[in-house]
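Problem: given the chain below (104 residues), write out its structure.
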Amino acid sequence: MIRRYLVATTISVLTLTVSSMDGALAQDYPTKPIRLIVPFSPGGGTELISRLLSQKMFETWRRPVVVDFRAGANGDIGTEIAAKVPADGYTLLFHTGKISSRFR
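Solution.
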């Protein structure tokens, strides 16, 4: 029961966040596909929520959203990949836990 409530609340918050960003974005963003890095393996709750989020992002922006699962080291591998990508706004990190501050 609590898990279902948490999942529903998370999806609601993410949906509101993505839909509210529609008017705040520049008119020419995005011009290429978005990469959503998920630092966990597929098959769990993070896959469900990240795929729902990517679908909503596609509906909002009309650009493909590639969900990239990079599991390992308790999320550190995917987090490190996201930290080292140039900050162009086309790579997003979907993380659910505590993020290590050692990635710079």
